[in-house]
Write a structure and sequence with these properties.
The complex is a heterodimer. In chain A, a hairpin with a 2-residue loop joins strand 4 and strand 5 (66-67). The N and C termini of chain A lie far apart (51 Å). Chain A has nine helices and ten strands. The relative contact order of chain A is 0.17. In chain A, strands 6-7-8-3-9-10 form a six-stranded mixed β-sheet, sandwiched between helices. Chain A has a four-stranded antiparallel β-sheet with strand order 2-1-4-5, with helices on one face. Chain A is α/β, with parallel strands linked by helices. Helix content of chain B is 76%, strand content 0%. Chain B contains 14 helices and no strands. By secondary structure, chain B is mostly helical. Chain B has helices spanning 14-18, 27-56, 60-69, 71-104, 110-122, 125-136, 143-148, 157-168, 170-183, 186-193, 198-227, 230-236, 246-255, 259-299. At the A-B interface, helix 5 of A face helix 10, helix 11 and helix 14 of B.
């Protein structure tokens, strides 16, 4: 699915979180929203999901050419993976993953066996079949992350939105999950956006990288392109090669 | 430098490890304070409690049976249960709505609303009853109009309910707000993004997560509702057989020198209090677990071994 975003503004009180955001995401693309904290990338992700609404104005969000700007989050059905997973603490892993199927209106709700089958498939995908009866508090960080992913995938979303998906994990698990996500994306080609402040993660995973700074998009391009031709001083500084960082400067 | 000098550690007496002399009062002061505390508890808590049951049983089981076959007493029990059955669900509904509003939305006047919810705790129930009397009484602001239309609030059941609702207003909201605040909106947002409607989010996510805190509030609210005296005396007037709830009936019996009967009814109220206390302690233990879980969820993002 393709996503088109136009003229998005968002302010919280006097703080302007997003300014005039225009962005097009191609079908099947894996896109990274990269930027320092407070640069507006998570806010944009939440606006795409419908968890936050843009300020009044000409703002427009299209999924496959269909205007979804006024649709609520539950109508948009974007798969969303939260930074701290937000797993349902009072439900076990199975019920967490089944949730999106169970809350469907009766007419389109799959029968119990179909739900169980789907959940089992997802448990196999994330390699957590023996953990179906466990509660989130009994899982490690990496396992929780995978459950959150499976839960989002259960509703067969057209887009997958991930907010700092690996931010809270240690280096080894982070690398593993990164590789897994890339492989998963190559297989399913589901249009995916993920937010990160870690440029290495963004460059390693994404087809294209969108660099945010102070609520604006500073540059959009492939990892190659962004690295070799930073658009302005902000990007150059953020990526770590500021003016005083010439190779010759340190002797 | 010369050879390594071995570190010597002075031996420590085990007893010195257990009590830090600098932080402990001399035994005399310690035991005087503990003794005073115990004496006080016995005098103001245990002794009166025992007296109630002693007096209630002063005429044996037969006396108790006569006390509870008095129609006025039976009516007062019925009335108290009726009032609680209306006031408690009402406040549960209001408490849930208020807690949800306060913890899930930002709006102008939010702090003011929070303070307002607490108001009945700070105001004397008698004053609360008086205010409603000034509004709905015969000489009150809306009273004459209401009475003309056949609605009687003061000195009737609606007055009892109104006074009780006012007094027990804060209990449920006050218990839910801190828990819901610490739990945050994450899980609710997750539910919405998975396609859940508002009512599904509430029933499947919000409510199960606060059920123990809600129950705790219900128990406190109920105990307070059944024991309310001040506001309902003023507003409903302790009309015998009509607006005499259990606490008011205790006073009626006492004033009529039916001491044994008064204490018999009082012992029932006391039992209610004790049961509440036991329930409260149990639920407190459960809510603390919920709260700890909510906090732990934020902290436990490191990687324990599976």
């Amino acid at each position: 699915m393709s996503i088109r975003i136009a003229a998005i503004n968002k302010s919280f009180g006097k703080f302007s979180a997003l300014r005039d955001i225009d962005l097009e995401i191609r079908p099947g693309e894996l896109l990274a929203l990269l930027g320092p904290s407070g640069s507006g990338k998570t806010t944009l992700l939440r606006i795409i999901a419908g968890l936050e609404s843009p300020d009044d104005g000409p703002a427009r969000i299209e999924f496959d050419g269909i205007d979804v700007t006024t649709q609520s989050a539950y109508e948009r059905k974007a798969g969303f993976v939260f930074q701290h997973y937000a797993l349902f603490q009072h439900m076990n892993v199975f019920e967490n993953i089944a949730f999106g199927l169970r809350v469907r209106p009766k007419k389109v709700r799959p029968p119990e066996e179909a739900i169980a089958k789907r959940v089992h498939e997802l448990l196999e995908l994330i390699r957590l079949v023996p953990f179906a009866k466990r509660f989130p508090s009994q899982l490690s960080g990496g396992q929780r992350q995978r459950v959150a992913l499976a839960r989002a995938l259960a509703i067969a979303p057209q887009i997958l939105l991930l907010d700092e998906p690996f931010g809270a994990l240690d280096a080894r698990v982070r690398l593993e999950l990164c590789q897994w996500l890339r492989a998963f994306h190559d297989e399913t080609k589901i249009t995916s956006l993920f937010v990160t402040h870690d440029q290495e993660e963004a460059f390693r995973l994404a087809d294209r990288v969108v660099i945010f700074g102070e609520g604006r998009i500073r540059q959009i391009g492939t990892p190659e392109h962004v690295r070799t031709a930073p658009a302005d001083d902000f990007v150059r500084n953020f990526l770590g090669f500021g003016e005083d960082m010439h190779p010759g400067a340190i002797v | 430098m010369s050879a390594v000098v071995p570190l010597t550690i002075a031996p420590v007496k085990p007893s010195a490890l257990r009590t830090n002399a600098a932080r402990t009062e001399p035994p005399l002061i310690r035991w005087t304070l503990i003794g005073l505390a115990i004496a006080f508890i016995v005098l103001v808590l245990i002794f009166p409690l025992l007296t109630i049951f002693h007096e209630a049983f002063s005429k044996g089981w037969a006396g108790l049976r006569t006390a509870y076959s008095d129609p006025g007493t039976l009516e007062s029990i019925h009335l108290t249960l009726t009032v609680a059955a209306i006031a408690v669900p009402f406040n549960a509904l209001f408490g849930l709505a208020a807690a949800w509003l306060i913890t899930r939305f930002d709006f102008r006047g939010k702090r003011f609303l929070e303070v307002l919810i607490d108001l009945p705790i700070w105001i004397s129930p008698v004053v609360g009853g008086l205010v409603f009397l000034l509004l709905f009484g015969r000489q009150g602001l809306f009273g004459p109009w209401l009475i003309d239309h056949g609605i009687k609030i003061a000195f009737a059941l609606p007055g009892l309910v109104l006074g009780t609702v006012f007094v027990t207003f804060p209990y449920i909201a006050r218990n839910l707000i801190p828990l819901m605040e610490s739990q945050g909106r994450g899980e609710e947002e997750a539910a919405i993004s998975l396609g859940a409607r508002g009512w599904q989010v509430f029933l499947l996510v919000t409510l199960p997560r606060v059920k123990w805190a809600l129950l705790y509030g219900l128990v406190l609210c109920n105990a307070r509702a059944m024991g309310e005296f001040g506001a309902v005396t003023v507003l409903a007037g302790n009309v015998r057989g009509l607006t005499s709830t259990m606490p008011l009936q205790v006073e009626n019996l006492y004033n009529d020198y039916h001491l044994a009967a008064a204490f018999a009814l009082a012992s029932l109220l006391t039992l209610l209090g004790i049961v509440t206390l036991i329930l409260k302690t149990f639920i407190e233990w459960r809510t603390r677990r919920d709260l700890a879980a909510a906090v732990a969820e934020d902290d436990s993002l490191s990687e324990p071994t599976p």
